[in-house]
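FIELD: query
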Amino acid sequence: MTRNPIPYGRQHITQDDIDAVVETLQADYLTQGPKIKEFEEAFASYVGSKYAVAVANGTAALHLCALALNVKPGDKVITSPITFAASANCVRYCGGEVHFVDIDPKTYLIDINEVRKLLESSPQGTFKGIIPVDFAGRSVDMEQFRGLAEAYDLWIIEDSCHAPGGYFVDKEGERQFCGNGSFADLSIFSFHPVKHIAAGEGGMITTNSEKLYRDAMMLRTHGITKDKNAFRNDLTMANGTEGNTDYPAWYMEMQDLGFNYRLTDFQSALGHEQLKRAPEGIKRRRQIARTYEECFKSKGFIKGQSGVVEGHAYHLYVIEVEDRLGLYNYLRSQKIFAQIHYIPCHLMPYYKAQGWKEGDLPNAETYYRKCISLPMYPTLTEEEQNFVIGQVVSYYEGT
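FIELD: result
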């Protein structure tokens, strides 16, 4: 039997997705048109935030957030080492300094107790902000981090690239969805093909702050505004003549050094169509997680699993094993393309050159030596998942 490769993640493109993109390609706007705002409004409604800003990708979203929060050279910002490098790099783009804090080995999320220890042992004002990461789809308890941020005058960027539709339960027993703006100043999401919502590339910023929303909107388009209420030049300069009573329709101002981080209309159309299926996709991801959990819970060679977690969006399903390299290579020989998430950021050569070294963050380093992400995406079939499980068991038990 010839078996198709099974990746760790995969996009699902339907005829409705294709139709939405084709319709947009045949319309008047390919970029800077109405589909972008439609997607932004639908996404804000989905996560429960007041505002959303669509951008070129998740990295652009992080960079714009750092710019909107006025990260400057020398500013120190805290984040997790178990994340994609962009979570930290956005600080460096602005000249800031990144301080990694170790993870909780049970959740793989940045350990709030370690963050608290760092803040308590540092002079007040040492740190400017924190970037918690909803790793693998598991939400950080943002209520606790908000309390810590207020005590130490920190801003928060919530990196929710793995967790649209994910949530945690607050102290009142209410579900708080990732990126809803109740606790983070800004949150960001990614629409890379392996994520919950695929737009080819793309990202989104969400916030409840009108000021940060307007700043992000301007910075994503070269720092240019067309809002006449925000113009700084006088009417004479704008129109070139005396006696005019309003700014001409063509007039605009570059007021800051921004970037071209826009999302196109056809990407927005695809993202919007995918968003309609997002709840169904999360439901299926949680079913897949339950199946993995049920099959692996009695296996001594599987480490790090503690049951299906409420509110987890399951972008990834991560297990910890001994002989991770052996399992990884064996699965590849069976056309199962598992992945490793992630090499700890502080051990990347760039950050080692900033002074970080092995032994600095032992939980993250121990996790990395054992972690492997198994296939997790809504179109993974029952047969395919059973094959993956069977091959993992076969490798360790020789059956």
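FIELD: remark
DSSP finds 14 helices and 15 strands in the chain.
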